[in-house]
Amino acid sequence: MAMLLIVEDDAEIREPLVDVLRGEGYEVETAANGLEAITRLQNPGAVPNLILLDLMMPVMDGWHFRAEQLKHPAIASIPVVVLSGAADVRTEATALGAVSYVSKPYKLDALLSVVQRSCPAPIAGASDEGLQRSPSAKKAPRVERDDTDESLRVERKKVDAELTQRRISVEEDSDAVVQMARDKADGVLQTARGQADQRTLESNQPSVRIREAVSREREKEDEILEEERAVADGQLERDRDERTRALKELHRLEREATDEHLVVERARSDAALLSRDDFLAMVSHDLRNMLGGIALNAAMIVKETSEHDGAKTILRNAEGIQRFTARMNRLIGDLVDVASIDAGKLMVAAEVGDASRLVAESAEAFQPSADAKGVSLNVEVAKDSLLARFDHERVLQVLANLLSNAIKFT
To answer: What is the Cα–Cα distance from 111 to 365, expressed in whole angstroms?
Structure first.
């Protein structure tokens, strides 16, 4: 007889699973956490053919259990099926090297199908690479932040170019004003000298020696003037360079302060997002565990209830419980998806499935609501299976929203 080991911390989920699987002819052992399961596997005795592993558990969670399992050759080859209410359960199962997964709350047919398909198939090529992961190890999305950083770099580059152009323009205008003043001063000086020479000629006739002396004196004055202007120009250039360096340093310090503030705010935002995501993950896990218990018990009622007249009401009520459980699970999925969309990491897991059955399943879930409002809800689908590749939960989500709004506003 094939043996299964169920590693699940919630007894109200674990015990119905035991009843269902024993009813299918399996021998079933249980463990309430990963550490208990490792201890159980290392003790002498029968080795299970398949492990059904919950992920979020106290003492030792599913990720650490799987890492420990793969360290021991004697138990490393035991195949694992992941049981989880996480939105990205498929990704988790792949990362853990599991042979398959079952989403919470369980659908009995899907659970039994996975168990029957996976047992006793051995796991192949398992390794502990990438296993050190837990719900709190999430990383904040980089795409939007990379876009923001790139935009910031582009804007800063543009501002720098504009400031440089403005500084050059101001300096050119300043140089033009200085040159204009100097040209005017030179003109006034030349006029004054010309008038002085004219008066000297009219008053008396200066000797050649006197004229040469005046000319030498003026040349010396012009040289001194040029030197003073050169010194002034050098000082002006040094002052401009100093102001430019000071402004660049001030600009750099301001940007460093801005960047530091941005890093602090992003870290605070990351912490808030991670806290929110961890809280949502824990709440959704606990809610799905409870829904899983309801769904399993309802499935057992449906399975064990015969079709005689006295049991039809029980059967109908149990099926109603299953439908409402599915709708509650989708509502939890919607809440988790909001956080995933905000974080930019909404998971889509496309698999081959029956599109006709999906449409019928959606209609069945909303038939009681339609009947209560007196709305006729009819489904026309192909008689044969219509196989397509799609994400079952995502498309079901879309159809559920469409049907809910259609019934609400009709």
So the answer is: 20
